Amino acid sequence: MDEPWQQLALQELQLKRQELESEISSLESRRLQLQKEIDSHFVGQADGLSRRVKGFQEYLNGALQELAQSAEQLQLVPETLKVQPSPLDQLASSGAAAPTEAAPSVASGLFSNEAELIGERLGRYRDSPDFYAEPWQLRRSLDDAAVAVLQTWFLEQGGRGAQPSGGSRSRNVLVTSAAISLLGELYGDRFQTLVLAGQPERLGEWRRGLQDCLGLTREDFGPNSGVVLFERSDALVERADRLEERGELPFIVVDAAELSVEIPILQFPLWLVFAADAQELAYEEDLL
């Protein structure tokens, strides 16, 4: 007869497997939705975006297979029970209130309760931009394509998904800046933006672009500031874990030049991946 701690360890493992299966199912639904969108709106980018989104599911499927193999070979010891759920997961399971009043974990669901605010702000960013806004508020105008991307990301993907690149890093920085501005209204200073771009030159473009779009200074970039820039995904994931341990929310942004996305990034409540088409990727390679 299994010891109680053995049964508990198996239950933990089964729960993680169920979570991965749920994530795969959710990602497959998003892939189908994105496929429909690119067929009608992003014909020129369809091949590149489809490959990126399909890659996400392949990564998750691989992780599920590894988990199943681990379950078969697992040697249960008491230490395996020392699994601490993240603060965001604990808050989500307790049934948090609306995003404006609850802990940041509610961002893992839809922003349906904030649809009116999001629509109003995006319309203002497009039609009546404030070029002298306070720091961390968008100071540039959005075009219709950028508004459509943000509406999909916020209201249909619930703040977790890939979106087609705007064709240049500056356009993607503008979209990200609008997202940061809106998230700031929803969560105040309870979140930190983590940008992954694998080359110093690319990170430099992100820093300068965010400074311009949001009225930031160099002091706003760093471990204890609002934006942190990363060349390596493992360092980014480590930082995101520490934020969750403190009950804060990481907002992860992945540059369009990144050819793959590590599985651990997909576990966090907020992430925006820009998917470049073949022409944009070829251009980035030529710059190296």
* Distance from first to last alpha carbon: 60 Å
> Number of helix segments?
9
Using only C-alpha atoms, the radius of gyration works out to 20 Å
Oligomerization: single chain
Top-tier CATH class of the largest domain: Alpha Beta
CATH topology of the largest domain: Rossmann fold
Strand order of the largest sheet: 1-5-4-2-3
What is the approximate shape? Answer: globular
Integer average pLDDT: 78
Main sheet summary: 5 strands, parallel
Protein model, in words:
The chain is globular and about 65 Å long. The protein has helices at 4-41, 46-73, 87-93, 115-127, 144-156, 169-187, 200-214, 233-245, 278-287, and strands at 160-164, 191-196, 227-230, 249-254, 270-275. The chain is 54% helix and 9% strand. Strands 1-5-4-2-3 form a five-stranded parallel sheet, with helices on both faces. It starts with a helix and ends with a helix. It has two domains: 1-83; 87-287, Rossmann fold (3-Layer(aba) Sandwich), CATH 3.40.50. The model is unreliable at 42-46 and 70-108 (pLDDT under 50).
Question: What's this model, at a glance?
Answer:
The protein is of the alpha/beta class and 288 residues long. It contains nine helices and five strands. It has two domains: 83 residues; 201 residues, Rossmann fold (3-Layer(aba) Sandwich).
Topology, element by element:
Layout: H1 4-41, H2 46-73, H3 87-93, H4 115-127, H5 144-156, E1 160-164, H6 169-187, E2 191-196, H7 200-214, E3 227-230, H8 233-245, E4 249-254, E5 270-275, H9 278-287
Parallel strand pairs: 1-5, 2-3, 2-4, 4-5
Helix pairs in contact: 1-2, 4-5, 5-6, 6-7
